[in-house]
Structures are given as structure tokens and as C-alpha cells.
Specification:
Strand 6 and strand 7 form a beta hairpin. The protein is of the alpha+beta class. The protein has a domain of 143 residues: Uridine Diphospho-n-acetylenolpyruvylglucosamine Reductase, domain 2 (2-Layer Sandwich), CATH 3.30.43.20. The protein is 53% helix and 9% strand. It contains 17 helices and ten strands. Bound molecules: protoporphyrin IX containing FE (HEM). Protoporphyrin IX containing FE binds next to helix 5, helix 11, helix 12 and helix 17.
């Protein structure tokens, strides 16, 4: 009996404590004029409910509400024109506001972490490294050759293959190839292991407890940084040697060539900004991380959707392009790529249906009135772009609320690179293989699109 009474008292005390903490958290963030909402628990806020309920969480209070996610107070989900206005108005004090773990692990010079003049410098370097001109004029043959040869090893004779794992491997190795000409071997394997630790850490709470994903991510970042610093040094030495070729074969070469040109310009008192070594390292890490999830998930989901929709698969067979080639394995040209209108539509439709990008985050640098409410300084805004996906869109890319690649001054610099990678992948994959689903594997759509146990397919070569 005494035990039951003590238990009752303890439970009662715990309930009072819990409601005190929740109330305290509400009062802490209370301001006049805020949209409705709850702030949840101290520190974690409503993060657990947000991750558990995913997009349904956004329907909680209608189109606009306040909450507390991933350690920050937030306002979320506006109408499409409000979302667009938020993304287009960085200079009014709506700057990128990604979670702390992501910012720390991607580095202080990561393009999403910098603003104003620094953003212009880093974004300019990013565009010259992976933007549309670089893809068309420098990387297209490398991308085509790499994807063709990578696909040879996927499987044959009805073997069961985890398409998710293969797509991950392909996208990561391709990034390494573009960055530093590394594809396979011990270095690539070590980097891959560190890279996945870093990636997992970006979606965690920024508390470096022993064994936590965040701490492992920090350790991985240190190792990757050390590796890149040594690589840059070695490359600089090699470029100075008389036998080094003058052109640039990968992104690192390109950055170092720009560095050398910048030095010459400075000798002639011109002032084109050049990247520091730390900026270069964060830029290379950003190239590895920024597109990784989105590109492999789109590749995987396109294979799945095409299997579910044979008529689309039939239309995608690129019979026109194939007629022009003497063998199915022949390299594609830029002209072939630009003629793949239906392929582009399949890729965008895959990204739309699978909701590859759910939303984008901004932070206020001042009190900002938005749609009749004032968002206090220092708050985060979760712009839930998913809604635009279900608007009745005909020509996706021309629609003003097309935000699969963001919009405004932060529009994705890797858009064309991703479209080329995915188009080449689909072309060569469906020339090489027939496939069917092997396990009816589940797909999780939130917080990122993935098959938690892999996506198994049977593959036959054509
Ligand atoms: C299917 C593939 C991709 C999708 C759906 C995608 C989507 C996006 C979106 C929505 C943004 C805007 C973020 C914001 O406004 O806060 C963005 C920005 C960015 N993306 Fe991509 N992306 C993809 C591939 C890539 C690739 C392959 C790279 C690099 C190699 C890349 C590099 C970046 C960078 C550096 C930014 C930040 C730009 C800035 O802040 O100025 N992305 N991307």
C-alpha cells in the first residue's frame, strides 16, 4: 500500500513538473502577434512529434503556425506566394537558417552559411566549379564515361541488387571523381566511410556527447579536412612541376588554377577575390554533401516509378538517340542530352512525387512582418515547399512556384549537374538492363527519402 502511495505521489509530481516545463517554454517564447502554436518541451521543443508525424505535423494549426524544432523557435508553412517572398528576400533579413549541427559540420565557409559579399565570392566559385557552363564544357564526357562504366558492374542474370546502395555508391564516387580524380581504392573507401559519418551528423542535435552522431560527424569532418588539406598541398606542388599539364582535369585543379590566376592579377593590382584554403575545403565538402541525398534518392525513385509505370518507361527508351548511334554503348553528346525532353520531365516528376525536397529553412536577422504576423528576430522559418508539388502544375520548370531547386539568390548551383547525372544514368540504365522489384521494400519519405532496408531489384542485361 505504502509503495502504491509513493508511486502515486511520484507520478503526480512528475506530471506537475512536466506541465511546469512545457508552460515555462511557452512563456519563454511568447510574443504579441505570433501565429497560433505550441513550443513543446524545453530544448527539444516539438522536434520528436515533427519527425514522427512528418508532413502531417504541418497541418496542425492551418496554414501558419509557430513551433519549436531542432533547438530553435520556428514559424512554418505559408501560402505559396508567401514562401516565394521569403526565399526571394534575403536582403530584408531572411537568411539561410539550417540547424546548428549542419552548419558546424559543413564549415564556416559553407555556401549556405555565408551571406552578402562572402556569399557572392563562395557562390561564384561554386558556380564556376559545378555550374551549367562547367558541366557542358568540361565535365560532360567524364560524367557519361563514368556512369556507363559504373553501370557495367551492377548485376546480371536476375541477380538481386540493392538499387539504393548502388545509386549511393555511384553518386559518391562520381563526386570524388569530379573533385579530385579519385574513384576507387583505399583512399576512396576511407573517405566514403568518413563522409557517411559526417552526413549522419548533419541531421542530429548539436550536442557532442560521446558516441553521438554529432560527435562522430565532427571527428569525420576533422579527418576529411586533414585529407583535403594534404591533397591541396600535394596538388600545388605537382602543378608547379614542369611536367604538370596546363589545363584542369578536376575541380581541385580548377580551383588551384584560379588561385594562381588570382595571384597574378594581384601582382598587377587587380582585385578579383580568390578563395582561401579553408574556403576551398568547405567548398569541396559542400560539393560532396549538397547534392548527395537528393541525387541518389531521385535515381532510385525514378527506377521504382518507371517499373510501376511501363508506358512511361516505353516512352523513355530514347529510340531517336539510339538510331543515331552505331552501338548501344556509344557515348552521348551534349546535343543528345538536350534532346531528352521526356527524360527531364520524368526526373522532375519523380522529384515532385517523392518530395525529394520537403522544405527550406530561413532565419530572421530582425523582427520581420510576414502576412499579418511579426516573426521575432533570431527565429527560424521552415518554408514548407512541399505544398507547391501538389498544385496542379503543367510545365513544372516554368511555373513561378517551382521550388524543387529553391529560388532567388540561393537557387541550386548544382541543378544542371544533377539533371545531367540523372539523365545519363536513366539513359544508360535502361539501355543496359531490364528490372523488376524483388522485395516490395518500404520507402520512407521523411525526413529524407530513403528505403530503410534497401530497395531490392532483380536485374537482367539486355
Ligand atoms: C536532385 C538534386 C538536387 C536538388 C533537388 C537540390 C535542391 C536544392 C535546393 C532546394 C536548394 C536551395 C536551398 C535554400 O534555398 O536554402 C539548393 C541549394 C544548393 N545546392 Fe542543390 N540540389 C540538388 C543537387 C545539388 C548538387 C549536385 C550540388 C553540388 C554539386 C548542389 C549544391 C547546392 C548548393 C551549394 C546550394 C546552396 C546555394 C546557396 O546557398 O547559394 N545541389 N539545392
Amino acid at each position: 500500500m505504502a509503495f502504491l502511495v509513493s508511486l502515486g505521489v511520484a507520478v503526480g509530481f512528475l506530471c506537475v513538473l512536466c506541465s511546469f516545463f512545457r508552460r515555462w517554454n511557452e512563456l519563454r517564447y511568447w510574443r504579441r502577434g505570433l501565429p497560433p502554436g505550441t513550443m513543446g518541451w524545453p530544448v527539444v521543443g516539438d522536434t520528436i512529434e515533427f519527425l514522427r508525424r512528418g508532413p502531417d505535423f504541418m497541418k496542425k494549426y492551418g496554414s501558419l503556425f509557430t513551433s519549436h524544432l531542432l533547438g530553435s523557435p520556428c514559424r512554418e508553412r505559408g501560402a505559396l506566394h508567401v514562401n516565394r517572398w521569403i526565399l526571394m528576400n534575403e536582403e530584408k533579413g531572411l537568411v539561410p537558417g539550417y540547424p546548428r549541427a549542419m552548419a558546424e559540420l559543413l564549415g564556416e565557409w559553407n555556401v549556405t552559411a555565408v551571406q552578402g559579399a562572402a556569399h557572392r565570392v563562395v557562390r561564384g566559385a561554386m558556380l564556376s566549379a559545378v555550374g551549367p557552363v562547367a558541366v557542358r564544357e568540361r565535365f560532360f564526357p567524364t560524367l557519361d564515361e563514368f556512369i556507363r562504366s559504373h553501370l557495367c558492374e551492377w548485376g546480371a542474370g536476375g541477380a538481386i541488387v540493392d538499387v539504393q546502395e548502388k545509386a549511393r555508391e555511384m553518386v559518391f564516387s562520381l563526386a570524388l571523381r569530379l573533385i579530385a580524380g579519385i574513384e576507387t581504392g583505399e583512399t576512396a573507401a576511407e573517405l566514403k566511410a568518413e563522409f557517411f559519418k559526417l552526413l549522419r551528423g548533419t541531421l542530429s542535435l548539436a550536442v557532442a556527447l560521446p558516441g553521438s552522431a554529432y560527435r562522430r560527424g565532427l571527428q569525420a569532418r576533422n579527418r576529411i579536412t586533414r585529407f583535403l588539406r594534404a591533397l591541396i598541398e600535394e596538388r600545388r606542388r605537382w602543378r608547379r612541376s614542369p611536367s604538370a599539364p596546363k589545363g584542369s582535369s578536376d575541380i581541385l585543379d580548377l580551383l588551384l588554377r584560379e588561385e594562381e590566376e588570382g595571384e597574378q592579377e594581384q601582382e598587377h593590382h587587380q582585385t578579383r577575390p580568390k578563395l582561401t584554403e579553408d574556403q576551398m575545403i568547405d567548398l569541396l565538402i559542400a560539393i560532396m554533401v549538397a547534392g548527395f541525398d537528393n541525387v541518389y534518392a531521385t535515381a532510385m525513385m525514378a527506377i521504382k516509378y518507371l517499373y510501376d509505370h511501363p508506358s512511361a518507361l516505353q516512352e523513355l527508351r530514347h529510340s531517336e538517340i539510339r538510331r543515331r548511334k552505331s552501338s548501344p554503348d556509344e557515348a552521348l553528346t551534349w546535343g543528345d542530352y538536350t534532346s531528352m525532353g521526356f527524360t527531364r520531365a520524368v526526373i522532375l516528376e519523380t522529384m515532385r512525387l517523392a518530395t525529394i525536397v520537403n522544405g527550406l529553412m530561413r532565419k530572421t536577422t530582425d523582427d520581420i512582418p510576414i502576412n499579418g504576423f511579426v516573426v521575432p528576430k533570431g527565429w527560424k522559418i521552415y518554408v514548407h515547399t512541399r505544398e507547391a508539388n501538389y498544385d496542379s502544375l503543367r510545365n513544372l520548370e516554368k511555373h513561378q512556384y517551382f521550388m524543387l531547386f529553391g529560388c532567388g539568390g540561393r537557387l541550386c548551383p548544382g541543378k544542371e549537374l544533377s539533371m545531367v547525372q540523372l539523365s545519363l544514368f536513366l539513359h544508360h540504365f535502361l539501355i543496359k538492363y531490364r528490372w523488376e522489384e524483388a522485395g516490395g521494400d518500404k520507402i520512407a519519405y521523411f525526413p529524407r527519402v530513403e528505403a530503410p532496408r534497401g530497395l531490392r531489384m532483380r536485374l537482367w542485361t539486355n
